[in-house]
Amino acid sequence: MNQPAVVQFALKERSVEMREAPIPEPSPRSVIIKVAAAGICGTDVHQYLNEHSWPINVPVIMGHEFSGVIYEMGSEVRNFAPGDRVVCETSAVVCGDCDYCRTGRYQFCAHRKSFGQMLDGGFTKYVEVPSHCLHRVPKNLPLRYAALTEPMCVSYNAAVAHAGIHPGKNVAILGCGAVGLMCVQLAKMQGADPIILTGLERDKKRLEVGRKMGATHIVAVDKENLLSVIHQIHDGLGIDVIIDLSGRNLSLRDAIHIVRPEGKIVRAGWGPGAYNFSLDPLVHKGVCLQGVFSHNWEIWEKSLKLLASGRIDLSPLNVLRLPLDRWQEGFEGMCDARLIKVVLEPNGEIEE
Ligand SMILES: [Zn+2]
Ligand SMILES: [Zn+2]
Asked: Which residue of 94, 122, 310, 341 pairs with 66 in a disulfide if CB–CB is 3.0 to 4.6 A?
């Protein structure tokens, strides 16, 4: 039996199309998820535009942010049952034996393979998932929001686990996609003040949403001079913590300019281009530059808790729900920043 799927078939710009793919069968330790919602991520947009820094095993069904219900289970799967509401981590394959796997930091496993890149992902009706990737979705969290747990985990890892935000610290968040907007809420929750959110002029709508979510200053960096805005804040000496999510290399240059001596830059966005600027100010200002990659079990559980409690409110993101066959509309809307977040619903509405 076949099913429709959004497939990246080559490493060239816009080499994505709808294809037929076989409906998978579970192996002993995996389950088949009937996909409820699958988020289009900035990562998917990078792949769509062929501007990515990670290996892709084409052809591959895209999508790594998905929620759903368990449809079928392998014979050795314990603790779950058909019909359970679940979300799925991105680290689909890890070795389980190396130092990083044994210490729960498996996102750094040299053998890691993730959905939608090396393995078939969730832009289809049914997806096979190893049971170790599953998390239960709390009852009061709709599956369409549960699909956003993955970007929430990226935000949590950057803004909570690594940023070192304390009450009263200045925080700047560079990039106003869904991850940036969730970082605004997390920074506010931790007592950051002021909170500066940056984007481009075309991101106006996203920046305004950021203001509603807690940003005290919003700056379109292609229109306003970021440095002069920063000079007018507090004592003018710069920003304590910068979370760089834009996925553009020039944003790191901005970060280096606006960071306060002994401040911290947490960089979670990435792209393959060259860096044509000096890193000397990092040394001169004694700045810490921290890379942040992916997430692990603990971050997933904490993020689900925050989403279910409503302390992180996703409603201002105005998530657009589209059927699978309108995937291209979602991708293009994310490319030019008209949309903040899109989820594809390959099986129509399976709850509510
Ligand atoms: Zn993602
Ligand atoms: Zn490993």
From this structure: 122
Distance 296 CA to ligand 2 centre (A): 13
Tell me the C-alpha distance between 254 and 232, whole Å: 16
Nearest ligand to the CA atom of 106: 2
Residue 41, C-beta contacts closer than 8 angstroms, at least 6 positions apart: 64, 65, 150, 151
What is the distance in A from the centroid of ligand 1 to the CA of 147? 10
The CATH classification number of 154-291 equals: 3.40.50.720
Asked whether the beta carbons of 64 and 122 are under 8 A apart, the reply is yes
pTM: 0.95
Q: In the annotation, is 198 catalytic?
A: no
**CATH number of the structural domain 2-148+319-344:** 3.90.180.10
Ligand nearest the Cα of residue 103 is: 2
Show me where the domains of the chain are located.
Answer: 2-148+319-344, 154-291
Active-site annotation holder among 43, 90, 149, 198: 43
43 carries an active-site annotation: yes
